[in-house]
């Protein structure tokens, strides 16, 4: 994997920006894949489950993005996959926590 600290700042910023965009596009698709199971899981179990179910979606979105960003070519792929996957996991876990808090507040009321 290319280390981000050895890349020019502009390339690093571009990869980070694209990874956020990929995560935003991928998160709803991953949510559809995991929603029926993750709400009953603990945080650690859910995190691993989301990461495994996100792999195919994120890789497909990264490949689509790289086709439109020829200057990145293959060197950016590992970093895009890693950062976008982390973003999808974070977004999905935040949604789970939001739902769980909402449910517990309704029960308390």
Map the helices and strands:
Elements: H1 9-38, H2 43-68, H3 77-108
What composes the largest sheet?
none
Rg calculated over all Cα atoms: 16 Å
Q: What's the total helix number?
A: 3
Overall structural class, as computed from helix and strand content, comes to: mainly alpha
Average predicted confidence as pLDDT: 88
End-to-end separation: 50 Å
Helix content: over 70%
Q: Tell me the series of helices and strands, N- to C-terminal.
A: HHH
Strand content: under 5%
The total of beta strands comes to: 0
Q: What quaternary form is this?
A: single chain
Label the overall shape.
Answer: elongated
Low-confidence region ranges: none
Task: Explain how this protein is built.
The protein has helices spanning 9-38, 43-68, 77-108. The protein is mainly α and 109 residues long. The longest helix has 32 residues, at 77-108. The protein is elongated, with a radius of gyration of 16 Å.
